[in-house]
Structures are given as C-alpha cells and as structure tokens.
Amino acid sequence: MSDQLCITTLRTLAIDAVQAAASGHPGAPMGLAPTAHILWHRFLRYDPADTTWPGRDRFVLSGGHGSALLYALLHLAKVTGPDGREAVTLDDLKNFRQPDSRCPGHPEYGHTPGVEATTGPLGTGLATAVGMAMAARRLATRYDRELFDYDTYALCGDGDLMEGVAAEAASLAGHLGLSNLCWIYDSNRISIEGATDLTFTEDVAARFRAYGWHVIEVPDGNDLTALTTAFEGFRTEAARPTLIVVTTRIGYGAPTKEGTAAAHGEPLGDTEAAAAKRAYGWPEDARFLVPDTAYTHMAAGIAQRGAARRRRWEDRFEQYAAEHPDRAAELLLMREGALPDGWDDGLPSFPADPAGLATRAAAGLALNAAAARIPWLLGGSADLAPSTKTQLTGEADFPEGRNLHYGVREFAAAAVTNGLALCGLRPYWSTFLVFSDFARGALRLSALMRLPTVHVFTHDSLAVGEDGPTHQPIEHLATLRAMPGLVTIRPADANEATEAWRVALTRTDGPTALALTRQALPTLDRKSYAPASGLALGGYVLADPVDRNPDILLIATGSEVHLALEAHHKLAAEGIAARVVSLPSWELFERQPKEYQDAVLPPAITARVAVELGATLGWDRYVGRRGTIIGIDDFGASGPMTELLSRFGFTTDAVVQAAREQLDDLSRTSVPVP
Fold first, then answer.
1. Rounded-to-integer distance, Cα 180 and Cα 612, Å
2. Does 260 score more than 50 pLDDT?
3. Does residue 422 contact residue 446 with C-beta atoms inside 8 Å?
4. With contact defined as beta carbons under 8 Å apart, do 242 and 214 qualify?
5. pLDDT (tens digit, 9 = 90+) per residue, 82-127?
6. Span 537-669: which CATH code?
7. What is the 3-state secondary structure (H, E, C) of 39-80?
8. Regarding beta strands 190-191 and 353-358, do their DSSP bridges make them parallel or antiparallel, or are they unpaired?
9. How far, in Å, CA of 34 to CA of 488, rounded?
10. In DSSP terms, which residues pair with 553 in a beta bridge?
C-alpha cells in the first residue's frame, strides 16, 4: 500500500508541476512512476544526504522531457545538496520551468543537486551513461573493486532509441560487456507525431540481443513484482549490459483517448487532471499533495540503505588509504578536480627546427608526457588514433589500461567522454576536425555542463589535400568558436601545441577543443620570437619591427602564422614595419583585460591583415571593417596541399600584397592634419 502511495504521489506531483507551468510532458512521468519508484526505493544505492559520494549508483533520465518525474523523485527522497538545502522543494516544483527554479524544463547538471547529467537531446543521456559505467570499470581496475562497484541506470523512451547515438553507445557497451549498466526502456509506443507505428516498428529487444545485451521484458509497467524481478535480474547479470523493456501506457490514468494522447507533450488541462487524480483515488482538488507516509516510506528504502552503504564505503576507503596511500591521494585529487604537483614538469620543449613537425605529433608527445604524471588521464579516438596521435604509449587498452577504442562512433565517443568526466576522470577523445559535426550535440553538452573534457581535432584545414572537400574543414573553427564555454585552440608550432595541452588540462570550468595540423610546421626559434607561453593569453605579439612602431598588424592562427612571419620579413625588407600576432584562441584572448588586448592589437593601428585556413566569419572583430581577411568561404578541392594553398591564395606573397594594399588604401583615405 505504501508503494502505491509513493507512486501516486510521483504521478500527481508531475501532473501538478506541468499544470502550474502550463508547459511540459506529464505522460512519461505518469507511466513510469512505478518503475522509478521500485528502482529508487528498493535498489538504487544512493544516499540522499550526499549527492557527490563517489560510490553511489548513477541514475540518468535520458528522456529529459520527463524531468517532472526526476524532480518529484528528488523531492520525495529528500535529496540534499552540498549547501544543506533540499535539492527540490515543493516551491521549486510549483515553479517548474520558470526562471530561477531548480526545476528547469530538462535536467541540468550543476543546476539541480542530484541531477547526474544534463539531458535533453534524446539518446545523448544514454551514451553519457555508458561513459559513467566505463568510469566505474576503469576505477575499479586501477584502485579497488569494493570502492567502485556502482551501477549506472538510464531511463529512456522510444525517441531515445530512434537516435543514432543510442545505437552507437549500445553497440560499444555490448562489445565492452558493461554488466554494471542498465538501460530501462519505456516502451509506450508514442512520440510527438503520434503512434510509433508511423516510424518505429523494429524489434528493439532482438536488436539489443544482437548487440550482446541481456534483455528482460516487463509486459505491464504497473506490475511491481515483475519490475522487482527485472531489477534483480540485472543485478545478477555478470557479463552483459541489461536492457529492461517496460511496456507502459502514456499518461496512465488519464481516462479518455484524447487525454492520453495529449499527455505526452502538453499539460492535461484541469478537467483531465482532475479525472486522472480521481482514477488514482486522489483528492481531485489537491495540488502538490505529499502525504507524510510517502516521505517516510521512501526514506525507509533509499535513505536507510544509502546511508549504511556510504558508511561502509567510507570505512573501506579509510582502510584502502592506509594500505595504498599514494592511490588514495590520487582519488582525493580526482574528487577535488585537481592535478598532481609538478604534473607539467615533463611536458616537452622543442628546439628550433625549420623542418619541424605536425602539431598533431607534438600534441601527442605532450599528451603522453602529461599522462605519465596524471594516472586518471585517459582517452582514445573514433578509429583514428594512428592519425590523431592520441594513443598512450606503453599503456594497455581499457579497462586494464587507459587507451580507449571507440570505433567509428564520433557522437558516442564525445558523449562517453562526458560521462567519464562526470565521474572525476580527465578524459579526451579525438577525430578529424571535419568530423566534429558528428559529435556536435555532445560537444555542446560538455560546454553546457562545464566539463573539463578535451576534444582533439586533427587534419585542421584544406591542407589535408587529396582527400578533398569532404575531409577539408572550412566552417568548423567558426562554429566551435560560436559555442559558449568551449575554448578552441589552434597552435602554430610544436611548442604552442605543448602549451595548448597545458591550458586544456588546467581548465576546470569547461571543455577545450584542439585544432591540430596533419602537415609538419617549422618549430619557431623562441630566442628570436616571443615564448610560446603567450598561448595561455589567447593571443600575443610574436614578432615586432626593430626600433620602430608597427605600420600594420598581421594576425594569424595555426599553420598560417608562418605565412605571416615570412610576410613580416619580406615587408621589413621593403621598409614596412609589420607586427605578427599569433592568435591561437579567440576565447582566451577575449578573457584578457582590455589593456592587454589593446597592447597586442593597438586600436590606433587600423591597417590589418588576418589569415586563417577557414571561414572568414568572425574575423572582422579583429581587423575592423577596413581590414583584409585572407580565408576561405568555399568547400576546397581535391589535390596536393601545395597546389591547393596556392590556388586559394594562402601564400606569403598574398599576405605581403594584402599588407601593401592595406597601407596604400590607408594612405589614400587619410585626411591630412592642418
């Protein structure tokens, strides 16, 4: 009887929250309330008093549109945030989907205590949950299986399983045999446009069995005994991830066909809401009613079990720390989001070399040096590690080691990386820059969650050459720079590549994207030019005229910095004083004080040329309306690199000519001072 009381409380809280907001999705919470209650009350190993305890089970609501269910669970379980305040109060529920409420339209990590991941775009939460399960496997392997035996649950619907990223993640999880992963599929056979018969008629259970999953089917989502048996079946499965298929009826309890259909994507309305409550045996005029018995019953399950388990975990950690103090110290640093003292002492410094090396190669050496001192730094590639240079030398493959292999699954790779970061690890993943498009949804969520993930993108321009326009990124740097919270860095030589990793790994407030070359670039003589440490400021004066102020600014990133430097010397021979500014990261540069920005790019110097092998979009902020931008706003072509660079105007002579024209134009339009 108490179980049913809690279930009805969850349902009616969701109904009331959506009604109050006049916005939201009540259907999934109504249908899934029994499943969620049984999981939280009887199985989830979670202490509501400590939302950051490392040994807790993870629960991800991948179908984030059903957020009212999660908020009702957090409230009923009396989950408490680090500040000692309830994660979700009744007032928060009453302000569902309103500004400043802890109950936004879709769950947001860092906004609401107890929300393990930001979800919204369907399928992405499932892939993130795979990363969480992988994190437990890796942590248990390096440290202690008793400390990291947690399970990860993800609740999803038809829409999630239609998304390609879910298929990518499911295939990877099945291959890895993640027996600590449980996806719960709410099979209610409806989506926004109507019945799933319109588009989704596959045998989902058969598909997951083919992936290598353990599949359990629950024909009636209101059968508490069957749900209990299903979760027990997951807990006893030792070799495969588990999919529990729960058949529900959307908006269970709404008495009419019209009400049931509307329940998926809009409020029930007063009449249907009252009818639903009547069907549940609930007072029709009650709003946000939570009986005391519902609180005490939920606490008797999740709170008592979770508190006892957390105490055992803390005792075990104390014992482990006594036995393995160095490893325990690593775990404490991970929990704090810190890095070991001296972690960057071994980062490589490269001597001047006209032949140089590709920034992907230099970055790979820097990554390996950092990984040698940060044992929780791990990652891999979407089937391109030999090209992206992201393999950790001498390291085993996951889970025994830190090399991950994602296969050709870019979106899943980025989402899994987010899941790893949410569990305290410092992860990276890699692919070609042009394929960042595949992963954009997960990149965006890494920025929205402010995760310190590293997205490594190589083959950063049409210098890829013969592979042609399909592999030559054009607009990609501009689109990455447009993403709030993401820092994009395009280093100009080997030493800037080292500094890029130094910046990326010291960031704690968001993700970093590295854009790296396939082709070799000269390693600059830092005795003649400014030190590469200037990269941390986003932009810096690399070369200046001797004994005079500059007439013109040459601004560039990545491989094009070398064109600017060559132009600088040619112009000097003509008596033209040019300053070269390396601008590897717009975002970092914009964070600097205006005084520094003006010192690097003096406002009085209006003759400016920017050069970058990418779209010209955005460069006007640095060159002004009258400046020249040497870029590319076409899709490139197939051919040898040197021929393409010449064809599209990326030559030293083109930069020199643009500088001359800038100064000539400035001279013609200048008004003499009387």
1. 46
2. no
3. no
4. yes
5. 999 999 999 999 999 999 899 999 999 999 999 999 998 999 999 9
6. 3.40.50.920
7. HHHHHCCCCCCCCCCCCCCEEEECCHHHHHHHHHHHHHCCCE
8. unpaired
9. 45
10. 579, 608
At 463-506, the pLDDT tens digits run 999 999 999 999 999 999 999 999 999 999 999 999 999 999 99
pLDDT at residue 541 tops 80? yes
**Residue type at 359?**
T
Our answer to whether residue 336 is catalytic in this structure is no
Q: Is the dihedral of CA 35, 37, 43, 45 positive or negative?
A: positive
In percent, the amount of the chain with pLDDT more than 90 equals: 92
Q: What phi, psi does 240 have (nearest 5°)?
A: -135, 155
- Pairwise CA distance, residues 33 & 46, whole Å: 18
DSSP classification of residue 299:
I
Region for 47 from its dihedrals, namely left if φ exceeds 0, alpha if ψ lies in -120 to 50, beta otherwise = beta
CATH code of the region 2-309? 3.40.50.970
Mean pLDDT of 411-426: 98
Q: Is the pTM of this model over 0.85?
A: yes
Span(s) in the chain for CATH 3.40.50.920 = 537-669
Which of these is catalytic: 108, 163, 410, 496?
410
- CA 398 to chain CA centroid, Å, is 20
Instruction: Name the amino acid, one letter, at 45.
Output: R
Contact 555, 608 (CB under 8 A): yes
Residue 259: per-residue pLDDT? 36
Q: What is the pLDDT of residues 590-600, one digit of tens each?
A: 999 999 999 99
Domain spanning 359-523: which superfamily?
A: Thiamin diphosphate (ThDP)-binding fold, Pyr/PP domains (3.40.50.970)
264: pLDDT confidence band, cut at 50, 70 and 90? low
For the chain, how big is the Rg over CA atoms in Å?
28
630-665 b/e with 16+ CB inside 10 Å = b?
A: bbbeeebeeeeeeebbeebebbbebbbbbbbebbee
CB 38 within 8 A of CB 73: no
Give the burial class of 451: count Cβ atoms within 10 A of its Cβ; 0-12 exposed, 13-18 middle, 19 or more buried. buried
User: Does 423 score more than 50 pLDDT?
Assistant: yes
Identify the DSSP state of 392. Answer: P
Does residue 565 have a pLDDT over 60? Answer: yes
Q: Where in the chain is the domain with CATH 3.40.50.970?
A: 2-309, 359-523
| Residue 203 identity | D
In DSSP notation, 111-127 reads TSTT--S---STTHHHH
